[in-house]
Every structure is written in C-alpha cells, then in structure tokens.
Specification:
Blueprint lengths: L7 H9 L4 H13 L1 H24 L5 H9 L3 H9 L7 H13 L5 H17 L5 H21 L3 H14 L6 H18 L3 H18 L1 H17 L3 H10 L1 H7 L2 H17 L3 H18 L2 H17 L3 H18 L2 H18 L4 H12 L6 H16 L4 H14 L18
Helix pairs in contact: 1-3, 2-3, 5-7, 6-7, 6-8, 7-8, 8-9, 8-10, 9-10, 10-11, 10-12, 11-12, 12-13, 13-15, 15-16, 15-17, 16-17, 17-18, 18-19, 19-20, 20-21
Length: 427
C-alpha cells in the first residue's frame, strides 16, 4: 500500500472499474485505511453519475429546449462553455431553441436578447452537419436576428456587420433571393437610423421588388419603412398619410403590439408637424395597448415621447414627471443609450423651468451615465455639454445654444424615435 494519496483521476478510474487489477488492489487497501480518500471517491462518483444523467437528457432532441432553458438560467458568461462542451447540444435544434427564446423576450429584455443571439450565432457557425443548406439557412437566421438585437440597443456598426454576414450566407440558403431581400430590408432600417436616407430608400425599394412576388406581408411593411424615411427627410404630410393608410391592415392582422408601434410612429409625425394634441392622442392609445400587452420597452419609448411632446407645449412639470418615469424604467432594463437620451431631455426641461443651472445638471448626468456602455456619439455629447456648462452661465441664450447644440451635434441616436416595421423583428 502506498503512503501517498491517490489523485482524483485514479480514484475515479477505480470507482468506474477503468483500472488494472494491481492498481485496483493498491487503492482498495488505501481506501480501507483513509476515510478522506473514500469520501473523495464517493463524491467523484456522484458527480460523474450526475454528468451522465445530464448527457442522457441532452442526448434526446426532444429535451434540447429543457437543456437550453436550464443553461440560460445561469450567468451569461457560462452559456457558451456549457453549450459547446456537450456534443449532444452542438446541433441545429439548440440554435433554434436559443433563437426562439431570444424572440420570446425581444420586446421586454433587449440586453438579454442580444446576449442569447450572440451565443446562437456563434454556435450556428460551429455546426458540422451533412445537410449544409438547412444549416446555412439557420446561420442566416441567427446572424439576421443578431443584427436586429444590436440595432435595437443602438449599436449601428455591429448591426451592419451582422447583416452583412447574413447576406454572405444568403446564396447558400433555401430561398436565396428572398433572404437577400430580407437583408436589404434590414439595411434600409439600419441606414435610416444612420441618417443615410438615399441609401436606405434604395435598399427598401430593392426589398419591395422581391417581396411583391414572394411575401405580401413584408411587401406591405416596406411602405411602413418608406413612411419613416419620408418623415426623416421632412416630408411629414406624406409620411402621416402613408402611416395612417396602414392602420386598417394592422388592425385586420390583430397584432396589438404592431398597432402600438404604428400609433407611436403617427404620433411622432404629428409632433414634428406641430400638432401636439394629435400626437398625445395617438401616444395615449399606444401606451394603453402597451400596458395591456405587457410590452415594457414599447411603453417606456412611448412614455418618453409623450414627455418630449408635453415639453414642446410648455407643460414642463408634466413633461419632467413623465420623462422621469421613462428613465426609471430604462434603468431597470439597463438600456444605457436610452438613459442618456431621456436624461438629456430631463436636463433641458429643468433648465427651461429655471430650477437648476446647466452646469449642475450636466455634472449630475455625467455621474449617472458613468460606467454605462454607450455609443461614442452619446458619450461625446455628455462630455461636450459638461465642458460647455463649465464655461458659460445659465441664461436664455445658453438654453437656446444647448438646444441647438443637441440638434446639430448629436447623431440620429437622439432624434424622435420611429419604430421599424414588425418584420424587422426576429422571425
């Protein structure tokens, strides 16, 4: 009998019978006189049996969804290792389960949606299957959904990179022309957000030409995107008419969340047209739908827009109260760029009310946004406004200067939000 304690590997081999007779006898006599090593052996064997039971569960395709659900309950940092370490989970059904879960939480948990889509796209790229067309189509879906997830959180560069990856996969999909049209449609939405309106219009027209032949629902939604482009280009009356022409179709489909987005867009156009009373009417309808459907992100977005419209009418106290409700919700969801946007609107409203100076407000904003993952444009705005506040005193001309600075120096991230067509969501 050896005086040294066996390693865990030797104890495990002993417990599972994977050991030579001579070594087995030596470890047997050691365990007879060493309670610590005996307890270690029992613990190792229990752990192995638990792992085997998990593998047996994950080995059946009908249980992949259960396995994915269990894994996603853990910290996001552990998801990839747990998914990729099991050969029985490196299968298309796992990617489909991930995308289905991402779709389920899309409207209410955008940050988690992005985390799941990122893992799904990474796993899809690792699949090695005998049916390459179906796997390529799955990779296409994963990268397309990842693009949408990035765009929703304001990362336009990553959104464009992801959709270009999807486009590179489209020729190998079941319906390559239709997949390329979906990429054009996504590009139109991304380019509109980036204020590249002529390119967005071209991409939207290319998508419409294909959808007219293959997908009537998406064909109709290109008119929704066209209305957004019209609004962004200042053709507000045309945009309002186009949006309102879609109400009947959306109501007929019965999807109330789509109807909320449409009402919110119409409200945005009327606000830009200087008709705040009509904007508030549509926003109230939209918020009511959001609350009944449980669409938290949409409710916050429309609450924020309501606050902006109220400020434009001089109802400053109501505006601040409404905007503070919106920013509190965004903090709960950890949506950094939206926090900055709404905090800036609150700052301007308070300055207009005259109850705080710009320097204090911008310093407070810098503290509130510290540590948030923000696009460069947002971080730059906060920094510059803080510097401006340190150099100038609060006066009417400073308020006017600050508003002009926001209008001229910020990116499209800070404009009145228009919601893209429903088909931009994960399918």
């Amino acid at each position: 009998m050896t005086d040294q304690h066996p390693l865990d590997a030797a104890l495990l081999h002993y417990a599972t019978g994977e050991i030579s007779p001579g070594d087995r006898q030596e470890i047997f006599f050691h365990l007879f006189g060493c309670r610590d090593c005996l307890d270690r052996t029992v613990a190792l064997l229990k752990g192995t049996q638990k792992m085997l039971r998990v593998e047996e569960t994950w080995d059946a395709s009908t249980n992949v969804e259960q396995a994915v659900t269990r894994i996603l309950k853990g910290p996001p940092a552990t998801w990839w290792e747990m998914l990729y370490s099991s050969a029985s989970l490196r299968v298309p059904s796992t990617v489909r389960a991930l995308l289905a879960e991402a779709d389920r939480i899309f409207s209410d948990r955008p940050t988690r949606n992005l985390q799941i889509c990122a893992v799904a796209a990474r796993l899809a790229d690792q699949l090695v299957i005998e049916t390459p067309v179906s796997v390529t189509s799955l990779r296409f879906d994963a990268w397309k959904d990842l693009s949408t997830a990035h765009r929703v959180l304001g990362d336009i560069d990553e959104a464009m990179r992801a959709i270009e990856t999807a486009a590179s996969l489209a020729p190998g999909c079941d319906e390559p022309e239709h997949c390329l049209a979906q990429c054009d449609f996504a590009r139109a939405i991304i380019l509109t957000t980036a204020e590249r309106y002529s390119e967005a219009s071209i991409a939207n027209i290319r998508a419409r030409a294909v959808f007219e032949q293959t997908d009537f629902r998406r064909f109709a939604q290109t008119f929704w995107q066209e209305a957004i482009i019209l609004a962004k280009c200042g053709r507000l009356d045309d945009a309002a008419r186009t949006f309102e022409s879609l109400i009947g179709e959306v109501v007929a489909r019965g999807n109330r969340r789509d109807l909320s987005d449409l009402y919110g867009n119409i409200a945005g156009v009327f606000a830009e047209l200087g008709r705040p009373w009509m904007a508030c009417d549509y926003l109230a309808r939209s918020i009511e739908i959001d609350r009944t459907t449980g669409s938290r992100v949409s409710e916050l977005r429309n609450t924020w827009t309501m606050g902006v419209v109220l400020r434009s009418t001089g109802r400053i106290d109501e505006s601040i109260e409404t905007l503070e409700r919106a920013v509190a919700g965004y903090r709960e969801l950890e949506m950094g760029i939206e926090i900055v946007r709404v905090e800036l609107d609150i700052a301007l409203a308070r300055i207009e009310r005259g109850d705080v100076n710009l320097s204090a407000q911008m310093n407070a904003l810098a503290v509130k946004t510290a540590g948030l993952h923000l696009p460069v444009s947002a971080a730059t705005v906060v920094h510059e406004l803080k510097a401006i506040a340190a150099r100038r005193s609060v006066a009417a001309d400073l308020i006017e200067y600050s508003v002009a600075y926001l209008n001229d120096a910020t990116s499209a991230d800070f404009q009145m939000p228009f919601q893209p067509p429903p088909t931009a969501l994960p399918s």
